[in-house]
Known about the structure:
13 helices; globular; disordered C terminus; transmembrane; L-PG_synthase/AglD; transmembrane helix; membrane; cell membrane
Amino acid sequence: MRNKVIVNIIRVAVSLILVAALFFIMRKELKDVFQLLLNVNRTQFVIAALAWVLANFFVSIRLKYFLSAQDIQVTVKEVVGLTLIGFFFNNFLPSSVGGDVVKAYYASKKTQGKTASFVSVFMDRLIGSLAIVSVAILAFIFSKDTPGNKVLIWPMTALFFTLMFLIFVLFNKMAMSKIYSLKLFKWAERLHSTSSAFKNKKMLLVKTFLVSLVAQFFAFVAVYFLIKGLDDFVPVIRVMFIMPFISIASMFPSLNGLGVREGAFVVLFKPLIGAQKSFALSLLWLFLYLALSVVGGFVYAFARHGKAGEYEKFIK
């Protein structure tokens, strides 16, 4: 318990320090940044917001496919609710009970065991991450002559092969048995036995991967229109190359990427649209994140959920 508290304190501290550092660095330009935010084109912003909503709708559909494959039947309405609640926990409740765990918990109430729901959420995140990395590589192929691309693509390529290796290990009985025998993960055997249900469902993996690409496309379209709303322009293909790096950076230990994500926006978009607009863009993107989190809070408040203490029982 003490270790969890320490980890949470570190996560919050990292985010607060990075946010403070970013505002300090941009202190002389904050007035211009806020002016950009006040003058953002409303039409472009609404289009971006709708694209963001569509992106997360398809993320929800991807999760529904994985849950259905484990005979966990949820409606579209329920799975969208799970996604929104996950946003709420990730952004507003800096606890060890992350959004993915909460989604798995709610899904587990549809079945007798929790392993199936956990594996479904795990596979959902794994395929989603693979899609993000794949988009960056595809964007590189179509814009490889852009300055800086060749340097950035190497870590993304390494991550792509790491994820592919993880998928191979996950579906390889001998590899998972070895991990279990070494007691690296006490749940390795159960994870393999449950995830192996996906091994013979290659079309499911293809379908969820394609849905992930669609979700990423709408997310990147949202960024594209936010930039247009700031009266600037970045080609969609360039946005498709940059955003995966920001998504991966957001996974750095912090309060759901807060501070890390905004810093990455400034660093990667600054050469294209300048520091002021890059910072304004990061704040607009943060607003979209928080807006869905607020909606998720209302869903959580009014949804039927278990008794106090059940989350702790679930994650033990």
